Structure prediction request, 1025 residues.
Amino acid sequence: MLVSVFCVVLLSAATRHEELQRAFARPARIAFPEDEPYSPQKAALGKMLFFDARLSGEQNRSCATCHNPSFGWETPVPRALGALQRPVARHTPTIENLAESEHFFWDGRVRRLEEQAMEPVSHPQEMGYSMNRVVRRLSAIYSYRRNFEIAFPGEGLNRHTILVALATYQRTLRSGWSPFDDWVEGDEDAISEPAKRGFDVFTGVGMCSTCHTGWAFTDHDFHRVGVASKDRGRGLIDPEMAYRFKTPGLRNIALRAPYMHDGSLTSLREIVEHYRRGGTPSEGQPSDLPPLTAITDQDVNDLIAFLETLTAYEPHVSAPALPVD
Amino acid sequence: MSIKRRILGPIVFLILIGIIGASWISLAAIRTQNEIQDADSATLRTLQATERAQRITAEIEAQLERFLNFNTVIPPAEIERRHQHFVSTFKSVWEEVAAADGSRRQREMAAAILRHFDAWDREASIALGLIPDTHVPSRSRLDQLSQRIELALVALDQEVRLSAATSNQNAREKYVRHVAFIFISMVAIFVVSGSAFLGFSSHLVVSLTRLAQAMERIRDGDYDAPVRDLGRRDEVGQIARGVAAFSKTLRDLSAAKSRIEHLALHDQLTNLPNRRALQEHLSHCLSERKSPEHRAAVLHVDLDRFKQINDLLGHAAGDEVLRHVARAMTSQITDADMTARVGGDEFVIVLRDTKDESQVEDLALRVIDAVTQPIEIWGEFVNVGASIGIAFVGDTDDDPARILSNADIALYVAKSEGRGRASFYNDATRARFEGNMALLKDLQTGLENGEIIPFFQPQVDGRTGKVLGFEALARWQHPERGMLDPSVFITLAFEHGLGDRLTTTIVSHAIAALVDWRARGLPAPSISVNFSAKQLRDGGLVEFLDDALFEAALQPKDINIEVLESVLFGDGVDPALNTIAQLQARGYKIELDDFGTGHASISNLRRFKVDGVKIDRDFVSGVDQDEEQEMILRTIVDLCRNLGIECLAEGVETEQEMEKLLLLGCNNFQGYGIARPMPQEAVPIWLEGRIDADYALARG
Prediction:
């Protein structure tokens, strides 16, 4: 009797683990669009461009200025300063794990990565430049021309190839391997017991995994999460989607403070407490989320411990050597 | 099988087993060592290849890392070239690993690693843009794949090491099993052959112990001790047969030794103990001397007339007599006593336990009686006499020789007292013996100094008064004791071997006297000289007389040989009779002296026809007063006349006797009545006086 009970328990445990693996296993490959195939040359070129401040008008800000890889490709302030030396409208979102995404920016106003890059370059509040000028400026540099010729044989440096290179590079950006991944792979010792309990809360009473789903912990959809702000979010494109913002992935979340589209929450605990009470109900900005009355303080701690296991072992990204002549 | 083989065989066998075992162990050790070394070198090669593969993998991943850092734009051809370089290097290395010897699992693992590598290579090629694909592997995917390769390589490394260690362990265990098997086998063989050897050894020890016991018994003189294992074919059998042979030889030797001892201590003829045995026995008796009441006695027995029997009947007869005598004497004594033969006809009886002299004397007389019994030899009866001298073992006489000497003295006395007697040794006999010895010594001196001279007693014809001759009678002019009669010294001289010398002296003096008298023109027709029967029996008497007469230019008829009538006792084989015949043939005249007192055989008297007899004085003295005596004398005289033998009466002293003798027909006289014996110088005077008397008588 005992034995059969024990077997059932074991079986159920094993079954649950397999479900988890399926739910959270990282995909082996990154899908690239057929019209813009991957090549390492394109990716390398894209990385140069990503780290090249010459893409900004004042040649003082590159993409990486705000999308700092050390902070999970974000900026450790609620809102970064733009080209006009004023804080930009929203908190810098991460650019990791975006190859599968169909919407870009907090409000998802761009549908392709090849288009997305144009906006920060040409936005006066951000990099304050234009693609045409970028093409001109870079074409003056021999090494860029040569590298473009390698990456895009017969096509060379132009507005399109610049965007493709940047998009290609960004598609390759995947958050690094984390203790949680090891746990998913079957290493029970990879994360602590509180973290495991936190995972149960995350997928259970916390209902976090309702939106933060899949290996990247996002449903790539838009939700109202009860953040008191005047920003209407998705509502700018679709009135029905007012105050909704794209669900960010949670990988490397511990590196990416402060949080929310406005950077209003400074710590993981604040976020958890935020969702515990069902967001900040305010007029005109209702939350889609119910308060989580079942969650205990212990669950909060466990949940934080779990979230910390999503931080990659090696977040470091080396800087490329930029062409100068 | 011989013991040598049975001892050396197992030892050689065990040595061979030991050598084989040691060689086997060494061989196994060498083989194991080789196996381990081969495995080690194969393992080492595999490990080195694996290590190189690991290094290459690390480098290829590092290169991939560099490429995928996207820090520089590298042309695809360059990337492909560099990537393919490492890939082909890895593959070539991996071919080595795959080619290397190893377990199945090892080969499977190597194949798996190659599959992993190929999978990684494919993914990496996509990531490097070498293979176009819309789905590009993520870094984590590549990391996973490369990690899989690394882990597999490490696993392979460990597997190789483990299998090497295992095979080492197996080889060592196999070696240990080998050694254990050999060791146990050797121990088993050693135990089996050792116990067999022990069994054989104990069997051998038992055999040897049995032999040793038999030898011990043989050594102790038990030659009948049974010797076993005689039939065995090994050395024990050889020894046993040797021991048996030794035992037999020892038995023979021992028998021979006891025979020799018996011979050394016994007289062969009579089987009586000899002188040496006697001395030992006597010494023994002396050493265990008992109380004074029970003294040991020594009887020295000497046979009388044995010499005669020996001479007459030969040595064979003498031997028979001796055996008879020995039996006779032995029959008279007890087992505790001893009879020994110490000389030709001398015996000694030792009585260990005697009460007194009378008992011993009785025994001695019984012995004499037994010895004296007639003995039948070859149909004839002979008898011998015996004289016995007895000496007691005194308190002071510890010397056997001394006691024997005492008995000898007693014997001497017994003999000199007339034989057939037993005489005890005592101070008197000793004194007498010593006196005799002193006299003997004087006699020897006297013979040398010419103290012994003949006196001459005339023999006359009673009818005519004519002198017939003279009898030479020995006289000793002793310097201290004066003139001595022959009765004092003649027996002494003959008993001690001086008889011949005495006779020679008398004969030469007599011949010289005869020559002297004849030269003076005196009537001296012949001289009579006494010879003993012994002298007659010894050869050379005829030649001696012939020579002496020849020198003196005399004839045999001038000498009369007087012998005692006992010489005619016995039969014709007596050499004395032969000598008498020779003498008669030469012309000597033979006269029987002291006729009538001995045992003369009348048949011999007739056969040898002696020239005359001299009738003993016992028949003559007082013949005129005794008729019986006269009748005996008449018979003798008649016998002589009838046989044609002259007769002469000795010891004639008175005129009456002479008249009676003449009347009976015996005309020849010798005696004091005629004349006393006189020295040579007195003879001419006596003869002249005789002539005057004859003359006066003729005239008167």
